[in-house]
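Complex 443.
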Amino acid sequence: MNELGPSPLAAGERNLGVDEARAAIAAALVPLPRSESLEVPLHEADGRVLAADVVSPIDVPAHDNSAMDGYAFAGAALRADGPTVLRATGTVVAGAPYGGTLGAGQCLRVMTGAVMPAGADTVVPLELVRVQGTPDGGEVHIPPGVIRPGENRRKRGEDLAAGKAALAAGRVLRPADVGLAASLGLTRVRVMRPLRVALFSTGDEVTEPGAPLAPGCIYDSNRFSLGAALRRLGMEVVDLGLVRDDRAALAAVVARAVREADAVVTSGGVSAGDADYTRDILARHGDVAFWKVAMRPGRPFAFGLLRREGAGGLAPGPAGEAPPPSSWLFALPGNPVAALVTFYAFVREALLVLAGANAAPLPVLSARSTAPIRKRPGRTEFQRAIVEPARDGGGWQVRLFGSQGAGVLRSMSEANALVVLAHDQGSVAAGEPVPVWLFDGLV
Ligand code: AMP
Ligand code: MG
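Predicted structure with magnesium ion bound:
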């Protein structure tokens, strides 16, 4: 197991860049053991994390077969100096193999996918031959040079040999993967149990939707946006509701979250101006680092490992032993846009890793900015934007969109992408390419 070494988690509050924060999180994470898995039927497999390699029990394809509609024959019969003339002896279709063996000078009409008849290793496509007489009994003339021996035959096991891994453990299954498992004759796959993620919002002003809104209060949106993002990632959400800015209430919910979940995602209450007891309580439960990340939006962020009460210390056990009972904490800023941006920047990939997935970073698109963008070097900036096909000359263009205020959730909803301007980047000129995260397919 990885240790949460003295740096960076042991420090109180630290300033660090987005990349440093991501690296510190990645270095600390310990995935669920592969043994925490279950078998599911294929129709429940999409989006799950594969817990064991899917090994093919069969050769795919199971037989040498024809890649074309045409005539199957022995390639050795081909002549270079003139047409090759063969006698058709019948037709085979996919699923009804030919019982006999082709003799010298014979060919067989085959449909795509038909098992290659014994004695044949080559298929000449229909459109390349001239047939005199009936298609499955006449004389087939193959002009010289149109085909080489062995062409248009798919070999047994060519796609996948029996005993080979068709899908590797850690893969997040997609529709094609589910189809691939079915094509091997499998009905079930072994997947990781979903990660349980406890989710709560903090703040005295934060109100449950549906309840009347008192003066100065706002409805809780973070628990709903973050809950939706978590469910899209395949996480099992343990919704712990709203928590008052109150020491005892927070201590109780943290204790419950750690008892019930593998990870805890919270929003609000970690800014420098917030009551000290948040840090107190979190710090008392484990090793938690409070960071001021050089990013906009999303500066305050806390990450750490919370102990289950009575579970003892965090010292790792001998190699192979299950990690101590504990729960990973991701405390996000309260501002609704900042909460989502920090989720995408730090939490998404971390939770996938914890869930046992081979998590890849978000794909980045390059798009030309339609207008100049002001940017100060020394922090990473995430700006809401609209990406669309470029009007001139192909590719993609991007324009900033709406208010960039950290609290304006509508701008996040109306945008279809985030422009991500790197730490050292300065202002951007119109027409310059910038990196973009697309919301479509994000989580
Ligand atoms: P905080 O990080 O607690 O200082 O909150 C920063 C801002 O985000 C404040 O304006 C809060 O009212 C707002 N906020 C905090 N939590 C939520 C939430 N769950 N939903 C919507 N806005 C929130
Ligand atoms: Mg608050």
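Residues 201, 203, 205-206, 218, 220-223, 267-269, 271, 274, 333-336, 407 surround adenosine monophosphate (ligand 1) (CB under 6 Å).
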